[in-house]
Structure formats: structure tokens, C-alpha cells
Amino acid sequence: MTAADCAGQCAENPECVVSTWYATKKQCLALSDRGFRTYGPAKYWVTFVRTGKTTEEKGGNEQCSSEKLVLEKELQERCEKEKVTLSTKCDEDRTSIDKKLQESKEEWEKKITALKATCDADKSAKEQCEQDKAELNKKHNEEKYTKEKLEQEKQVILNKYKEEKAALEKANIDEKTKLEQENNKLKEVIATSGGGPAKPDSLPVGINPYLPCPNIDGKEYTVDGVTYRAFCWKKPRGRYINTDVDGGKLNIRDLVIGMKACSLDSACQGVYSNHQSYWTIHLDYQFPPLEEIPHLNSEQHLSFIPVQPRGNNFKPNALAIPSLLAGNVFGGCPESDGQQLNIGSHTFNFHCREYTGAPDAHLPISSYIRYPPWCLAVCAGTPGCEGTSMGYGSCKFYSRFEKLEKMEQSKIVPHHWVAVLSQAGND
């Protein structure tokens, strides 16, 4: 069904007043209600309203025929005008195209002439190229002969160089052997004259660790191969690490432990203990120390300075111990778990785990230490110490470890650590 069919159905039904065609669903709706009002426009709806007129009424066919003739005449005239217009435009386009074709032809003829001239020039250049090529081949052959001659001369010089080098190496080996023999003789002389191995430990005896000054002033002690001189109420100037501020504390009355910890660290150029027994690590060598400290209420201020500067290159405020531990009271945990850390000749296995140990395994070290490098250094410098650990308090030191396997399999915690002395570090 189409829209025309829908209109026809309404026309054939005398009671139909209006019909509507729904294009999307192809449905026709017929209404007989004369009160119908149209709404619109609507995109997919066509409405046909009965007017009451028919083509049979008077004058209907005649009027239609007359209007048809008028429309045909108008359309014929319009068609003729458009034909004339299109014909004129066609002639103009043909003239324009002919002109462009002529111009293009002339342009191509010019290009062909130019290409021909270029071709002739290339032909002449090719002949010149052949001549140049022949001359280059001749020159190449001459250079090849010269190169072969130079290679022969080079080989002669190279052979001579190898012979001289071999002779020089032999002379160097002979000289090295001679120097080694002389060095061995010097070692024998040094050994017989008291030199050679480091001095044995010379520790303070009979010194009250709570009131060492002034009795200890000016005396020298050797600890782990390093000889120190004691200075009362003096301390070095320059760079230092304050363990009470920079990540932990070293609070210990044992003077030997203080010197041992410095000896184990090649960055240490001296140590200073204030009246509360808090120690600082000095990084710049100064002998004797230049800063004077006033004598107030018998306060004890003491420095131990190596009699010779210790050779070591290091950055400001950085110890020679692993940088992961420096300045971190929790030992860089959890990243440092499972590492091996070297303090002097001692090697520790480091774990970010919680460990307390048996009460009878604790070493009676009187201190409050939280700075991990110093905890390891104190353990390394204390006979019988097998390791150290720390949680939220100070470091604890152990003469033995129990249930290590259980500890190593425990959960990693960031605020606890334990360092166990390796057997290899005790050799």
C-alpha cells in the first residue's frame, strides 16, 4: 500500500473525513470524526482531508486542461532558454580548453628543446668523464705501487720495533727481579730493627672511665694497630658525625671500645666524648686538636686522636661503613635484609627481623647505642660478641645465637634488625 492508496480508500468511503498515512510502518488510518484537527508538520505522517469537491463538478476538467497547457508552454520556454545558455557555456568551455591545450603544447615543445640541449651537453660531459677516468686509473696504479713499497718498509720497521720491545721487556723483568730482591733485604732489615707488624695493643690501665682527666692527658694507647694520643678538654675542629643527632646514639663509658670502634673504621680520624659520654666521629684530621673546652664543674671532655692521619678518601658526613646503614637507626630496613656488611675485617649477616635472644646470652656492655654502624663496630671490637640487634630501644649484644633458622624464616619487620657475625669474619 502507498500514500495514494490510503487517500483513495478515504475517497471511496463516504463516511471518511480524513485519512493519515504512516510511512514508517506503511499503515493507513481513516477517521469519520468531522471535529478532527490536523497537527503538524510530522516527519513520517501524510494527512489527506476530504474537501467535498470532485473532478465531476462544473468546470473541473476544462480548468485542469487549460492549466496543463499553460504549464507545458512555460516548461517549453524555460527548456529553450536553458538550452541556449548551456550551448553558449559549452562553446566558451571548448574555446578555453583549446587555448590551454595550445599553451601546454608550446610548453612541452620548449621542454623537449631544453632536454635535447641537456642531452647534448651530457654526451660531451660523458666523453670528458671517460678521459678523466683513464687518467685516474693511471694515477691509481702509480699509488698502488707506492703503497706496496711503503708496506714493505713498514714491515721492516715493525720487525725492528718488536725486537727492541722484547729486549726492553727482558730488561724490565731483570730490573723488577733486582728490586724485589732489594725489597726483601729491606724487609729483613726492618724486621731486625723493630719495624714490620703493627704495634701490639697498649690499653689504658688503672684509669677511672668516669674521671679519666687529667690523668690520661698526653698518654698514648695502641688499639687494633692504631696509636692514639689522649687530649683532655680539647676536641678537633672540622667535619664530624654527631651520633646523638644524626640517627642514633653512642653513649658508653668504655674508653677502649671508643678507640676500637674508631680503629675499625678507616674514615675515623679521631673521636671525642663529652661530659655525658656521648661520642662524635671526626672526619678531618687535626693533631693536636685546636678547640679548647672550658673546665666547668669538673666536667670530663676527652678526645682520642691518631698520632698519624689515616689514609682514606670519603665524602663529608659519610662513614666508610655501608652507606645504606649510615644515618638510619633502623639499618635501612627492609631493603637491607639479607645483605652482608663488612666492618673492618669482620663480616655480619644482616636481617630485618625481630630477635631478643636468651637472657644469659646478653653481653653486659654498659651503653645506650642506637647508631647501627657503631653497634656493629662495638660488637666487632668486643671479645666474645657474636652479633647485635635493635628494636625500639638500644642495641643488645650477644655471646651466642639460638634458633637462628627460625628467626631467618620469620616475617620481615621494618623497625627491627639483627646482625650475626659470620664465621668468615673471625678468621
Write the layout of secondary structure elements.
Layout: H1 3-12, E1 18-22, E2 27-31, E3 45-49, H2 60-192, E4 220-223, E5 226-232, E6 234-235, E7 240-242, H3 255-263, E8 271-273, E9 279-282, E10 291-292, E11 302-306, E12 340-343, E13 346-351, H4 372-380, E14 387-390, E15 396-398, H5 404-408, E16 417-421
Coiled coil: 98-185
Keywords: Coiled coil
Folded structure, characterized:
This protein has a 6-stranded antiparallel beta sheet with strand order 4-5-11-8-9-7. It has a 5-stranded antiparallel beta sheet with strand order 12-13-16-14-15, with helices on one face. A 3-stranded antiparallel beta sheet has the order 2-1-3, with helices on one face. It is built from 5 helices and 16 strands. The longest helix has 133 residues, at 60-192. By secondary structure, the protein is α+β, with helices and mostly antiparallel strands. It has helices spanning 3-12, 60-192, 255-263, 372-380, 404-408, and strands at 18-22, 27-31, 45-49, 220-223, 226-232, 234-235, 240-242, 271-273, 279-282, 291-292, 302-306, 340-343, 346-351, 387-390, 396-398, 417-421. Strand 12 and strand 13 form a beta hairpin. Helices cover 39% and strands 16% of the residues. The chain has 4 domains: 3-54, no CATH class; 81-197, no CATH class; 205-318, no CATH class; 321-427, no CATH class.
Features:
427 residues; alpha+beta; six-stranded antiparallel β-sheet; five-stranded antiparallel β-sheet; 16 strands; flat; coiled coil
